From TrEMBL:
All copies of domain Aminotransferase class I/classII large, residue ranges: 40-381
Similarity comment: Belongs to the class-I pyridoxal-phosphate-dependent aminotransferase family.
Keyword Zinc-finger: no
Catalysed conversion reaction: L-aspartate + 2-oxoglutarate = oxaloacetate + L-glutamate
UniProtKB keywords: Aminotransferase, Pyridoxal phosphate, Transferase
Record's protein name: Aminotransferase
Species of provenance: Martelella mangrovi
Gene3D superfamilies: Aspartate Aminotransferase, domain 1 (3.90.1150.10), Type I PLP-dependent aspartate aminotransferase-like (Major domain) (3.40.640.10)
Domain of life the protein comes from: Bacteria
Xref: PANTHER family: AMINOTRANSFERASE, ASPARTATE AMINOTRANSFERASE
Annotated Pfam families: Aminotran_1_2
Any one GO MF annotation of this record: transaminase activity
Enzyme Commission code(s) on record: 2.6.1.-
Length: 388
């Protein structure tokens, strides 16, 4: 028996990232245009870094509040008042070591080993992996791809529920598809969850990247007191802070002690100086969100308009999030295609196969980047498509 064989099956069977495979394959190439990762190309704004630096210089390096420092929790509640019209108290807010950490601890809280969780495919691969590592059974419900757009059939969700179902993971606007739930979609899902007494874990990280105008519809618009809904969010996308690994949860205060315990037994809290940077971002950084949104809107138009003009890309412009999920005529094996595209064009795309069932013929490109880079990438990809 090898050392690896002696580890738990939950650990050793965790899937390798199909995105990272392509990144590792192409990251050292000259003249590379990397559109494979879910982040922009701008560093964190200086005022955010300065706030963390001042806190570090002031000695804010000790253990701190595991639910988050009080000023940050209050500022997150204010963020929801500004952008969602929601009246939340700081007691609803829990700071975590990234959005991924928030998801993982809520998967632990909502499911026991062998119980089931529903999510919508194609999906950001980390949710299925988090469920598997926690011992829950992943139940993928496919979104429907018709005439270049993705849609949800709530009847499929209802049909997937069993007596072991404990939660529904809802990512909207969605990575990688750009699917954005309507209020009707959310109402249908909430009614299903109420009827069956199950939790909704709502990943609304891209809520402000909604290209129809204003933020995307949210469960906050329709939920009532007592609904079993927890929201996941992160500082990564809005404020160009992907490497900081700071996120948060919005959850009923009634389960706060459980969340605090799970933070204690995973990270024991987020460093206080990092929370001070996050505080500056969410308190003073609405202009950063607006600037990133405008860059994303422009990038979406540059990339999608050029590729759609080839008449060989079926996908329409996404309604939300940061990704074009491209179905290209002639491509069925996206992993092989992503490797080939790196070799022949120097453009890095994520293979749709990394996003589970339904994603196999697609390629994902992040368009939160410099306009010149996207114009270059679009021309290289259009030329590649024309030669297929």
């Amino acid at each position: 028996m090898t050392l690896t064989d002696s580890l738990s099956r939950r650990a050793t069977q965790a899937p390798e990232s199909g995105i990272v495979e392509i990144i590792n394959y192409g990251r050292e190439r000259d003249n590379l245009l990397p559109l494979w990762a879910g982040e922009g190309d701008l560093p964190t704004p200086q005022f955010i870094s300065d706030a963390a630096r001042v806190a570090l210089d002031n000695g804010e390096t000790f253990y701190t509040h595991q639910r988050g420092i009080p000023p940050l929790r209050a500022a997150i509640a204010d963020y929801y008042a500004r952008h969602f019209g929601a009246k939340l108290s700081p007691e609803h807010i829990y700071v975590t070591g990234s959005g991924m950490h928030a998801i993982k601890i809520m998967v632990e809280a909502m499911t026991d080993v062998g119980e089931e969780a529903i999510y919508f495919t194609p999906a950001w691969p980390n949710i299925a992996a988090a469920l598997g590592v926690s011992g829950a059974r992943q139940v993928g419900v496919p979104l429907e791809f018709t005439n270049g757009r993705w849609n949800l059939d709530p009847a499929r969700v209802e049909a997937a529920i069993t007596d072991k179902t404990r939660m529904i993971f809802v990512n909207t606007p969605a990575n990688p598809t750009g699917w954005t739930a309507s209020l009707s979609d959310l109402s249908a899902l909430l009614e299903i969850a109420r009827r069956h007494g199950i939790w909704i874990l709502a990943d609304e990280i891209y809520a402000l990247y909604h290209f129809a105008g204003g933020r995307a519809p949210s469960f906050l618009d329709i939920m009532e007191e007592g609904d079993r809904i927890v929201f996941v969010n992160s500082f990564s996308k809005n404020w160009s802070m992907t490497g900081w690994r700071v996120g948060w949860l919005v959850a009923p205060p009634e389960i706060g002690d459980t969340i605090e315990n799970l933070v204690q037994y995973t990270t024991s809290g987020v460093a206080q100086f990092m929370q001070q940077g996050a505080l500056a971002a969410i308190r003073d950084g609405d202009h950063v969100i607006a600037e990133n949104f405008e860059r994303a809107r422009a990038g979406r138009d540059i990339l999608c308009d050029r590729l759609l003009a080839t008449n060989r890309v079926e996908t329409l412009k996404p309604d939300g999030a940061l990704y074009a999920f491209l179905k290209i005529d002639g491509i069925t094996d996206s992993r092989r295609a992503a490797l080939d595209i790196v070799d022949k064009t120097g453009v890095g795309l994520a293979p749709g196969s990394a996003f589970g069932p339904g994603g196999e013929p697609f390629l994902r490109a992040c368009f939160l980047r410099n306009a010149g880079q996207l114009e270059d990438a679009a021309e290289r990809l259009a030329d590649y498509i024309g030669r297929l």
